[in-house]
Amino acid sequence: MNELCRVNNIIFIMADVYGVFSRCFVDCGQDPFTVYDKDGEQLKEVFINHVSPEGIVTVAGDERHPFQDGDIVLFRELVGLEHLNQC
């Protein structure tokens, strides 16, 4: 069924319930799509002011950063800490 939907460019969603357990599978096809964070907001970008040897990151500016515990971040264009780029 999924292959038929994929060939015809149709989004496929399958859900099963087994007592107290369930599962869900979603195939949006081969076309690229945008991933949003858990709050439905688009991904954020901030400028880094400093990274301590302990790994504490300080962002530039007076505003609070938009990140929450458990968020995944990507470093790029770091100068002096190139080994962290793309991590």
TrEMBL record:
Question: Which superkingdom?
Answer: Eukaryota
Q: Which Pfam families match?
A: E1_FCCH
Q: Domain Ubiquitin-activating enzyme E1 FCCH: where?
A: 54-87
Give start-end of the signal peptide: none
Instruction: Extract the GO molecular function terms from the UniProt entry.
Output: ubiquitin-like modifier activating enzyme activity
Q: Which InterPro entries match?
A: E1_FCCH, E1_FCCH_sf, Ubiquitin-activating_enz
The regions listed as transmembrane in this protein's record are: none
What name goes with this protein?
Answer: Ubiquitin-activating enzyme E1 FCCH domain-containing protein
